[in-house]
Design a protein that fits this description.
single chain; 70 residues; mainly alpha; Arc Repressor Mutant, subunit A; 51% helix; globular
Length: 70
């Protein structure tokens, strides 16, 4: 189960913070499964979580047409 794999990874690196994307890539698990497992572990206080603001925002460039991008 992905939850057990995640716990093993976190136990191997107790000082390090991981993003869901990092965990997903390292363990080759679907990001949605990692997210659900982490939510459950947070609920039962098995892991510590830190929430951060979005680092980057992206928007479409109005002066470019779709054909210029594709």
């Amino acid at each position: 189960m992905s939850q057990e794999e995640i716990i093993e990874l976190l136990e191997e690196h107790p000082e390090r913070w991981f993003t869901l994307s990092e965990i997903s890539a390292l363990l080759e698990l679907d990001k949605s499964n990692v997210s659900n497992a982490i939510k459950s572990m947070i609920k039962f206080k098995e892991v510590e979580a830190e929430y951060r603001e979005v680092v980057a925002k992206v928007k479409f460039k109005k002066d470019k047409g779709l054909s210029d991008i594709i």
